[in-house]
Specification:
488 residues, Rossmann fold, three-stranded antiparallel sheet, Aspartate Aminotransferase, domain 1, eight-stranded mixed sheet, 2 domains, 14 helices
Amino acid sequence: MTGIRRQAVLLALAALGVVVACAGCAPSEQQDGHTSSAKTADAASSTAAPAAESSLASSSSAASSAQAEPEPAAQPEEQGRVVLGDEQFDAYLPLLEGKRVALYSNQTGIVGDVTSAEPLTMGEPGADLVAFGTAADGSAVSYGQHILDALAERGVNVTLAFGPEHGFRGTEDAGALVGDSVDEATGVPIRSLYGSNSQPSGADMEAFDTLVIDMQDVGLRYYTYYLTMYHLMDACASGGKEVIVLDRPNPNGFYVDGPILRDDCVSGVGELPLPVVHGMTWGELAQMINGEGWLSAGSGACNLSVVPCKNYTHATKTAIVSRPSPNLKDMRAVYLYASTCFFEYTAVSVGRGTDLPFEIYGSPYLDNGSYGISFTPQSIPGATNPPFLGVECLGVDLRDESLQAIWEQGINMDYVVSAYRDMQQTHPEVSFFGEPDAYGRYWIDLLTGTTDVKRQIEAGWTAQEIEAAWAGDVEQFVQQRAPYLLYD
């Protein structure tokens, strides 16, 4: 595509609502009108984001699979269905014309989130407990077309695919080494970008002109998929490659919470100065990465375009349709993950090796008689060697908490604080927080992004005092992210 023709295409797409943040372009001037507190919720404001309100033609027919795929169960666009970036083919296929394309995705890259099941509404009783891949009646669902297949079917020259933690199909254990492979359906080579191979190689970068990103995230700093996007954006900015983000809703996009990552807690589960819950979609986060100077090539160095969702706001409670990773099995786990993940690598199991990871927690050391459930972790797919394998744990079942309460409380430090207090009383010899790394940091330090929280828990602070201590971080971030938001 010639430079003149590309400019014409970009102007046309901008008129339709595609956000084009080319190298050197300033971020959107839209301001975030949300109030700030330790638990900052996103609410609709009178200042609408033009890109999110645009009326690009829906491509629901193009989202069907060449195989015997299910019919879309979602409501038509005119009735307010959230339309994903990936199903708006008219908005981004012109940008891929004549280009060698790389794709960053995984098993969640289903065009339009099409499934054979009726869409879940998070206000419906029990909807949060319907396991991903299962309909409300317990039957297995089938999925629509994957973005890789959709691009190949439309003649896009996909030369390479990148996969994150858990692999391109999302079946590997947390932290497991994932090797390179080849997609059986298309023959496209797949490069794993997790662990020691977090950066694309020079040969990889030579294999494409434009990177397309389509993946479902859950909006937490320690959920590492976005870090791979960051690394790819960094390489693309330095290598002069285009990046197109096909945006998706953030299921935890209705609030901001938690400490901002400190420099001394940078690790494989956190590299950017974000709070635990950042409340942004990937399109918004990509714009912030580009605009804040977090790329090695400098502010605005990435030739970035975003295809926003339609009919989405930060107040929207969206239900995703497939497991984003092996141990997030339903929407309740997605909502609780911001609070229960702090048990990782402590003396408390978060339920890995059971059917309810992140919805229960327990330990053989919580034996003071006040814990109402027991479970025994087993070796299962996605958790082949869980903590306390084969050992009975006593603990808490969080499935009885209402969704409204979980939404309102945001990060709830009471789970960790209570377990720590009880274990200190009955088993003071146990190292609740596990062992430090070579730099003296504990896993909870890396997850919270600061060494303060662990010290506060040990000093006897209440959960409310701990949460109040990061209110300033939340307020700071809400203001910092405002120019990059695409949605009310």
